[in-house]
């Protein structure tokens, strides 16, 4: 993926946005799309969560204090990926009140952060989901919801490996725009290494646990992520950042989660 970005150079953001769009899922209908995609990936494809035969959605108690993003395939309107940013429960005096902390606690593993990082300054990237037909770069027929057997072009498939990284670029942009700089994520080492090749360098802050494979808690300061980002991926990041900033101002749904001062900071 890094070789592909390097070869394409600064025009990669235009090519990516020709094929995909970024959606701040602020409305009920857009969040329903997120929950439906998560059900397809987490429940039907991967078996991580139980099937919801009635509603075909996957959601949990953390979604009410999360911001959600979608990557949408422009030509079909299909959801190509999603992620959420979860904020701490300020009433949770026993810790951060984040999913990652619960997972580590259940496995008897501690998250070790610098003492200067306050719980109220943290957030977590989680529920990153990409459906199977956007995970393969092979040109072959795939069963796509609402389209039967559908074939994506070779040009389109060349960009599929960027969807996962683009979701983390969305998270980096979002956390910077709202001033929530200290970010946690539960990841496999291989994905952490993929992000590092783009200059997004997370630090491991827990021992590995067996949670949907071997994963560990990772931490990054959003400001360091921006500073260290490779020049080859920076134009795409800036385009995502600009687009999300516009959507936040237009949709105005951030204050309900983070307080009214946050939107004022974005607008100024």
The shape, in one word, is globular
CATH superfamily, please? Gcn5-related N-acetyltransferase (GNAT)
Relative helix content = 40-55%
Rg from Cα: 18 Å
Derived from helix and strand composition plus strand pairing, the structural class reads alpha+beta
| Major beta-sheet overview | 8 strands, mixed
CATH top level label:
Alpha Beta
Tally of strands: 10
The tally of helices reads: 11
What string gives the helices and strands in order?
HHEHEEHEEEHHEHEEEHHHH
How much of the polypeptide forms β-strand, as a percent range? 15-25%
Separation, N- and C-terminal Cα atoms: 36 Å
State the CATH architecture. 3-Layer(aba) Sandwich
User: How many domains is the backbone divided into?
Assistant: 1
Mean pLDDT figure: 84
Unreliable stretches:
4-10, 260-268
Care to describe what's here?
It is a single chain. The chain is α+β, with helices and mostly antiparallel strands. The chain has helices spanning 2-8, 12-19, 28-45, 99-106, 154-158, 162-177, 189-197, 222-228, 234-251, 255-258, 260-267, and strands at 20-24, 66-73, 79-86, 122-129, 142-144, 148-150, 182-187, 203-204, 209-210, 214-221. The chain has one domain (2-253): Gcn5-related N-acetyltransferase (GNAT) (Aminopeptidase). It is built from eleven helices and ten strands. Strands 1, 2, 3, 4, 7, 8, 9 and 10 form an eight-stranded mixed sheet that branches. Strands 5-6 form a two-stranded antiparallel sheet. The longest helix has 18 residues, at 28-45. InterPro entries: Acyl_CoA_acyltransferase, PEP-CTERM/exosrtase_acylTfrase.
Q: What's the short story on this structure?
A:
The protein has 268 residues and is α+β, with helices and mostly antiparallel strands. It has eleven helices and ten strands.
């Amino acid at each position: 993926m890094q070789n592909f970005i390097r070869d394409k150079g600064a025009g990669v953001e235009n090519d990516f946005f020709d094929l995909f769009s970024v959606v701040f899922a602020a409305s009920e209908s857009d969040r329903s799309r997120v929950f439906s995609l998560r059900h397809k990936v987490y429940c039907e494809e991967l078996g991580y969560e139980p099937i919801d035969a009635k509603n075909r959605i996957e959601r949990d108690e953390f979604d009410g204090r999360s911001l959600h993003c979608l990557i949408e395939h422009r030509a079909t309107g299909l959801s190509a990926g999603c992620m959420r940013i979860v904020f701490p429960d300020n009433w949770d005096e026993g810790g951060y009140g984040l999913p990652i902390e619960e997972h580590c606690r259940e496995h008897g593993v501690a998250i070790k952060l610098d003492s200067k990082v306050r719980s109220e300054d943290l957030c977590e990237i989680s529920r990153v989901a990409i459906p199977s037909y956007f995970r393969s770069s092979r040109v072959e027929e795939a069963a796509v919801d609402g389209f039967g057997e559908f074939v994506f072009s070779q040009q389109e498939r060349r960009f599929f490996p960027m969807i996962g990284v683009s979701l983390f670029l969305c998270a980096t942009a979002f956390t910077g725009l709202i001033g929530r700089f200290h970010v946690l994520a539960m990841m496999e080492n291989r994905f952490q290494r993929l992000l590092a090749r783009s200059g997004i360098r997370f630090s491991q802050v827990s021992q590995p646990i067996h949670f949907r494979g071997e994963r560990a808690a990772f931490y990054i300061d959003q400001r360091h992520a921006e500073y260290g980002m490779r020049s080859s991926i920076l134009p795409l990041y800036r385009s995502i950042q600009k687009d999300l900033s516009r959507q936040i101002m237009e949709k105005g749904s951030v204050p309900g989660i983070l307080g009214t001062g946050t939107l004022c900071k974005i607008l100024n």
